[in-house]
């Protein structure tokens, strides 16, 4: 039979217990049964059961001792808690008493109660110090309830503000473990905000004081460390750091607005930011302009150094400058043109660098400028971009390009100015894009908008004057080259062959070479221009091309076969003119082709041809002049048709 506690269930009877034990043992029953009585077996069972009872007794004794120990500990802990509560109440009671005594003592006359007042004040300060120490200890132990109790008692003491200061200092201990002061601050405020709601009766005041403490100490020290070291030595890094620090500080302030900081938390946070950055922001735009001025000059100088080019002084007022200006605007031979060896002195890489620096400056200006100063500051940055990009680079390249355009009578001249035009246009598109994308949003609602637009218009007009001058002189050179080809390749006998019966009817060599040259220049213009400028320039080139051929044809006399050859040449010129894709140019050559028919038409048909579609509106003197070019003009009395 197993020995268990069940055998000792109340009410317990020893005789009954032994009787039950004997009865359950085989051969141990006193009244007989299936087996005969066996005293030895019963004795063995008793001995065994006695051992089990001893073991059970030891086990129960150990459990009893354990429970007794636990009971003693719990009793001790309970006693401590009771004592703590009693002490807590004595603190509250004492605080209440000393607080009242302190208030009463303020009313007592000093001369009669000086000693009493001093004792009360001493007790007041001692108790106040003990409360703050108790609060600090509870904060270190993380006992929120105790902190709340002590804070509630201290609320009526002068030292309550000191208690809050101690709390703020202590809660920052170990909070800044990462390298990111802004992330650490956000995490700290998130954690503390939950705690102050449970501890303090005015959590918004405590949170505001914590944030003020962080801004005026931790953040301000961090900002000074980052900025003061680079302010004089590295302007670029200083401006980058200032932008980054100010951006991250304002972003942190935005996060902090989710906490209850009082009635006007936005103004409160703005003042804190201003207290950190005001001295830096006051001088920001001066630093920005100085940096951009130096950086732009360095980028430009680095480019010209890479080209081994010493910048020429433009507008110096020298005799050479005057001669160059005259030569640029006229076709007077005032000496050789500047040889640039095909260099345009325009650099896409330089332009990208200048625009990128300006883009960063606009971003910093937007972030760091006072709203009232933003348009003015953005305009000053724009003026520096105009100076470096438009004046010092594009305008200078146009001046050099103009100086490199050869005179119109130059032979086999290389015309690089159209390449300058192409690159200048591409650059100005980038300039215009930055103007619209980055400058306009900063000035669109201010009077500075009109100034910016006026300045941009002024820059465009100045460049257009030089572009127009350069294109005009380039077209003169093209016409001069055509004239040179015609002068060297066109023979007088081309239109008055010695053997009229042995002539191949095709265009002349001079015509072939001129058309080939013109076709190349048309393609060059198309690659160099964009939009309506292509048609404008090709129209002007086509008109000059037509005028040259018209005047050229009037220098010769034409036999009947020569007239046919002239018509072939003009037909080829007209085919070349189709490449211009300008209706006016094609119309001019259609008319010229019709005029050339006057060189071969039978005398009796002159009047009919002159009244044709292309010639009917032309001046009769012009028609007469063309007819006079025929070798049979006098013999056939052709003049009578125009009398």
Automatic annotation (TrEMBL):
Pfam families: Sec10_HB (PF07393), Sec10_N (PF20667). The keyword Protein biosynthesis does not apply. Transmembrane segments: none annotated. Keywords: Coiled coil, Exocytosis, Transport. Residues 43-77 form a coiled coil. It comes from the Eukaryota. One of its GO terms (cellular component) is cytoplasm. Signal peptide: none annotated. Residues 93-641 form the Exocyst complex component Sec10-like alpha-helical bundle domain. Residues 39-90 form the Exocyst complex component Sec10 N-terminal domain. The keyword Transport applies. InterPro entries: Sec10-like (IPR009976), Sec10_HB (IPR048627), Sec10_N (IPR048625). One of its GO terms (biological process) is exocytosis. Belongs to the SEC10 family. This is Exocyst complex component 5. The lineage of its organism: Eukaryota, Metazoa, Chordata, Craniata, Vertebrata.
